[in-house]
Amino acid sequence: MSIRYTERLAEAGIEPSVGSVGDSYDNALAETINGLYKTELVHCQGPWRNMQDLEMATFGWVDWFNNRRLLGPIGNIPPAEAEENFYAQRDVLDMVA
Questions:
Q1: In this model, does residue 82 exceed pLDDT 60?
Q2: Looking at the structure, do residues 70 and 31 belong to the same domain, yes or no?
Q3: Residue 71 CB neighbours (<10 A)
């Protein structure tokens, strides 16, 4: 399958976005987030009546995950707030320089 995938990308003129051979780090974050999503939402709050209900619940989970979830390693603030702080600090440093 991976050989056919690589060949198809080459035919389409697309460069694959993967790490070095044997490097699993490219997919580690995606797999972690997918696992959290399935554990915290899909399996715990289901069964779902239909795909639309799951999609709406997914929007809410993603909003919570990015904007309201308090994350200890970054000071018990939401990831979106940490990102805002990062760019605000960078902008201040750019003005000073």
A1: yes
A2: no
A3: 13
Asked whether 78 and 70 are in contact (CB, 8 A), the reply is yes
Number of separate helices (H) and strands (E) present in the chain: 5, 0
Q: What is the pLDDT of residues 7-64, one digit of tens each?
A: 888 898 887 766 665 555 667 778 889 999 999 999 999 999 999 999 999 999 999 9
The tokens describing 63, both together, are 């909003």
DSSP state of 72: G
What is the band of 84 on the pLDDT scale with cuts at 50, 70, 90? very high
CB 76 within 8 A of CB 69: no
User: Three-state DSSP class for 77?
Assistant: strand
Considering the domain architecture, whether residues 40 and 56 belong to the same structural domain is answered as no
Number of domains in the chain: 2
Rounded-to-10 torsion of CA 5, 6, 11, 17: 100
